[in-house]
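Chain A, query sequence.
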Amino acid sequence: MLKATVVIDPGHGGTIEVGGSSANNAISFSGVLEKSMTLQFGLLARDALLALNSADTDIKVVMTRQTDVNLGLLDRAKVAKTNHAERFLSIHFNGFDKTARGVETLIRPKADGNVNYDDDKTFARRIQKAVIETIKAFDSGVKDRGVKDQKVGVLSDVALGNTAADHPCRACLVEIEFIDVGQVDALLNTGATSPAVRQAIAKAIALAIFDDLKDG
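Chain A, predicted structure.
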Protein backbone atom coordinates (compact mmCIF):
# COMPACT_ATOMS: atom_id res chain seq x y z
CA MET A 1 0.00 0.00 0.00
CA LEU A 2 1.22 3.49 -0.86
CA LYS A 3 0.99 5.64 2.26
CA ALA A 4 2.54 9.11 2.33
CA THR A 5 2.20 12.70 3.46
CA VAL A 6 2.60 15.60 1.04
CA VAL A 7 2.95 19.25 2.04
CA ILE A 8 1.79 21.87 -0.45
CA ASP A 9 3.03 25.39 0.19
CA PRO A 10 1.18 28.26 -1.54
CA GLY A 11 3.77 31.03 -1.65
CA HIS A 12 3.38 34.43 0.03
CA GLY A 13 0.15 35.63 1.72
CA GLY A 14 -1.08 38.19 4.20
CA THR A 15 -0.08 41.85 4.14
CA ILE A 16 3.42 41.99 5.65
CA GLU A 17 6.72 40.16 5.23
CA VAL A 18 7.20 37.35 7.73
CA GLY A 19 10.44 35.45 8.25
CA GLY A 20 11.80 36.21 4.79
CA SER A 21 8.49 35.49 3.06
CA SER A 22 7.11 38.57 1.29
CA ALA A 23 3.36 39.14 1.30
CA ASN A 24 3.31 39.21 -2.50
CA ASN A 25 5.72 39.49 -5.40
CA ALA A 26 4.27 39.15 -8.89
CA ILE A 27 1.05 40.77 -10.10
CA SER A 28 -0.77 39.50 -13.18
CA PHE A 29 -1.43 41.62 -16.28
CA SER A 30 -5.02 42.17 -15.09
CA GLY A 31 -4.07 42.78 -11.46
CA VAL A 32 -4.45 39.35 -9.85
CA LEU A 33 -1.96 38.93 -7.01
CA GLU A 34 0.50 36.05 -7.00
CA LYS A 35 -0.46 35.19 -3.41
CA SER A 36 -4.07 34.62 -4.50
CA MET A 37 -3.02 32.44 -7.41
CA THR A 38 -0.64 30.30 -5.36
CA LEU A 39 -3.41 29.59 -2.86
CA GLN A 40 -5.91 28.80 -5.60
CA PHE A 41 -3.53 26.42 -7.38
CA GLY A 42 -2.38 24.90 -4.09
CA LEU A 43 -5.91 24.02 -3.08
CA LEU A 44 -6.65 22.61 -6.54
CA ALA A 45 -3.52 20.46 -6.37
CA ARG A 46 -4.52 19.26 -2.90
CA ASP A 47 -7.96 18.22 -4.12
CA ALA A 48 -6.46 16.49 -7.17
CA LEU A 49 -4.04 14.56 -4.98
CA LEU A 50 -6.76 13.48 -2.56
CA ALA A 51 -8.84 12.29 -5.52
CA LEU A 52 -6.07 9.77 -6.29
CA ASN A 53 -6.63 7.93 -3.01
CA SER A 54 -8.02 4.42 -3.29
CA ALA A 55 -8.12 1.11 -1.45
CA ASP A 56 -4.36 0.77 -1.84
CA THR A 57 -3.38 4.47 -1.74
CA ASP A 58 -3.46 6.69 1.34
CA ILE A 59 -2.04 10.13 0.61
CA LYS A 60 -2.43 12.78 3.29
CA VAL A 61 -2.09 16.39 2.13
CA VAL A 62 -1.12 19.17 4.51
CA MET A 63 -1.29 22.82 3.43
CA THR A 64 1.10 25.38 4.90
CA ARG A 65 -1.74 27.87 4.56
CA GLN A 66 -5.39 27.71 3.51
CA THR A 67 -6.24 31.39 3.87
CA ASP A 68 -4.65 34.77 3.14
CA VAL A 69 -1.96 34.60 5.82
CA ASN A 70 1.82 34.64 5.62
CA LEU A 71 4.29 32.27 7.26
CA GLY A 72 8.06 32.56 7.50
CA LEU A 73 10.07 30.48 5.05
CA LEU A 74 11.47 28.14 7.69
CA ASP A 75 8.08 27.76 9.34
CA ARG A 76 6.66 26.63 5.99
CA ALA A 77 9.38 24.01 5.66
CA LYS A 78 8.88 22.90 9.26
CA VAL A 79 5.33 21.84 8.39
CA ALA A 80 6.98 18.99 6.48
CA LYS A 81 9.16 18.07 9.45
CA THR A 82 6.26 18.19 11.91
CA ASN A 83 4.10 15.98 9.70
CA HIS A 84 6.92 13.61 8.65
CA ALA A 85 6.20 14.43 5.02
CA GLU A 86 7.74 12.57 2.10
CA ARG A 87 7.22 15.42 -0.39
CA PHE A 88 7.16 19.22 -0.14
CA LEU A 89 6.10 21.42 -3.05
CA SER A 90 6.13 25.21 -2.91
CA ILE A 91 4.02 26.94 -5.58
CA HIS A 92 4.89 30.36 -6.98
CA PHE A 93 4.48 32.51 -10.11
CA ASN A 94 6.98 34.79 -11.81
CA GLY A 95 6.80 38.36 -13.05
CA PHE A 96 9.51 40.38 -14.77
CA ASP A 97 9.17 42.61 -17.84
CA LYS A 98 5.79 41.66 -19.31
CA THR A 99 7.51 39.65 -22.06
CA ALA A 100 9.61 36.94 -20.37
CA ARG A 101 7.86 33.57 -20.27
CA GLY A 102 8.30 30.04 -19.07
CA VAL A 103 8.14 27.52 -16.27
CA GLU A 104 11.05 26.75 -13.96
CA THR A 105 11.49 24.55 -10.91
CA LEU A 106 14.04 25.25 -8.18
CA ILE A 107 15.97 22.97 -5.86
CA ARG A 108 18.52 23.82 -3.20
CA PRO A 109 22.14 23.40 -4.40
CA LYS A 110 24.45 20.77 -2.96
CA ALA A 111 26.85 23.53 -1.98
CA ASP A 112 24.16 25.02 0.26
CA GLY A 113 23.68 21.87 2.28
CA ASN A 114 21.18 19.90 0.22
CA VAL A 115 21.61 16.33 1.51
CA ASN A 116 18.83 15.15 -0.81
CA TYR A 117 20.05 16.72 -4.05
CA ASP A 118 19.65 13.83 -6.50
CA ASP A 119 16.20 12.87 -5.24
CA ASP A 120 15.12 16.51 -5.21
CA LYS A 121 16.24 16.86 -8.82
CA THR A 122 14.28 13.76 -9.86
CA PHE A 123 11.18 15.14 -8.13
CA ALA A 124 11.68 18.61 -9.62
CA ARG A 125 12.07 17.22 -13.13
CA ARG A 126 8.73 15.43 -12.79
CA ILE A 127 6.98 18.60 -11.63
CA GLN A 128 8.63 20.67 -14.36
CA LYS A 129 7.68 18.19 -17.10
CA ALA A 130 4.10 17.92 -15.86
CA VAL A 131 3.51 21.68 -15.80
CA ILE A 132 5.28 22.38 -19.10
CA GLU A 133 3.45 19.66 -21.03
CA THR A 134 0.08 20.69 -19.63
CA ILE A 135 0.48 24.37 -20.45
CA LYS A 136 1.86 23.51 -23.89
CA ALA A 137 -1.38 21.67 -24.69
CA PHE A 138 -3.18 25.03 -24.34
CA ASP A 139 -0.46 27.50 -25.36
CA SER A 140 2.55 26.66 -27.50
CA GLY A 141 4.27 29.88 -26.43
CA VAL A 142 5.38 28.49 -23.07
CA LYS A 143 9.13 28.04 -22.58
CA ASP A 144 10.89 25.33 -20.60
CA ARG A 145 13.28 27.20 -18.30
CA GLY A 146 14.33 23.94 -16.69
CA VAL A 147 15.25 22.75 -13.22
CA LYS A 148 17.65 25.17 -11.53
CA ASP A 149 19.81 25.21 -8.43
CA GLN A 150 18.98 28.16 -6.20
CA LYS A 151 19.40 28.82 -2.51
CA VAL A 152 15.78 29.09 -1.39
CA GLY A 153 14.98 29.40 2.30
CA VAL A 154 11.78 27.38 2.12
CA LEU A 155 13.81 24.38 0.87
CA SER A 156 16.11 24.23 3.89
CA ASP A 157 16.88 20.59 4.65
CA VAL A 158 17.27 21.26 8.36
CA ALA A 159 13.81 22.83 8.52
CA LEU A 160 12.32 20.09 6.33
CA GLY A 161 13.65 17.47 8.74
CA ASN A 162 16.33 16.03 6.47
CA THR A 163 19.78 15.02 7.70
CA ALA A 164 22.69 13.31 5.97
CA ALA A 165 21.72 10.07 7.69
CA ASP A 166 17.99 10.33 7.11
CA HIS A 167 16.46 12.46 4.37
CA PRO A 168 12.91 11.31 3.66
CA CYS A 169 11.49 14.58 2.29
CA ARG A 170 12.03 15.53 -1.33
CA ALA A 171 11.39 19.21 -1.96
CA CYS A 172 11.21 21.73 -4.79
CA LEU A 173 9.66 25.08 -5.71
CA VAL A 174 7.81 25.52 -9.00
CA GLU A 175 7.39 28.89 -10.71
CA ILE A 176 4.31 28.46 -12.92
CA GLU A 177 4.84 31.00 -15.70
CA PHE A 178 5.19 34.80 -15.79
CA ILE A 179 1.79 36.19 -14.91
CA ASP A 180 2.61 39.78 -15.90
CA VAL A 181 2.33 38.69 -19.55
CA GLY A 182 -1.14 39.31 -20.98
CA GLN A 183 -1.28 35.98 -22.80
CA VAL A 184 -0.41 34.09 -19.63
CA ASP A 185 -2.91 36.06 -17.58
CA ALA A 186 -5.64 35.17 -20.07
CA LEU A 187 -4.51 31.54 -19.99
CA LEU A 188 -4.61 31.24 -16.21
CA ASN A 189 -7.02 33.92 -15.00
CA THR A 190 -9.23 35.80 -17.41
CA GLY A 191 -9.76 33.61 -20.48
CA ALA A 192 -12.81 31.46 -21.09
CA THR A 193 -10.77 28.27 -20.73
CA SER A 194 -8.79 29.41 -17.67
CA PRO A 195 -10.76 27.22 -15.19
CA ALA A 196 -10.01 24.15 -17.32
CA VAL A 197 -6.34 25.14 -17.60
CA ARG A 198 -6.02 25.58 -13.84
CA GLN A 199 -7.63 22.19 -13.22
CA ALA A 200 -5.40 20.53 -15.80
CA ILE A 201 -2.22 21.95 -14.25
CA ALA A 202 -3.33 20.94 -10.76
CA LYS A 203 -4.09 17.39 -11.90
CA ALA A 204 -0.74 17.16 -13.68
CA ILE A 205 1.08 18.29 -10.52
CA ALA A 206 -0.86 15.75 -8.45
CA LEU A 207 0.00 12.92 -10.85
CA ALA A 208 3.66 13.94 -10.87
CA ILE A 209 3.77 13.81 -7.07
CA PHE A 210 1.91 10.49 -7.08
CA ASP A 211 4.30 8.96 -9.62
CA ASP A 212 7.32 10.20 -7.67
CA LEU A 213 5.95 8.62 -4.50
CA LYS A 214 5.32 5.32 -6.30
CA ASP A 215 8.86 5.25 -7.66
CA GLY A 216 10.44 6.63 -4.51
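The beta strands are 2-10, 57-63, 87-94, 103-107, 144-149, 170-178. The two ends are 13 Å apart (CA to CA).
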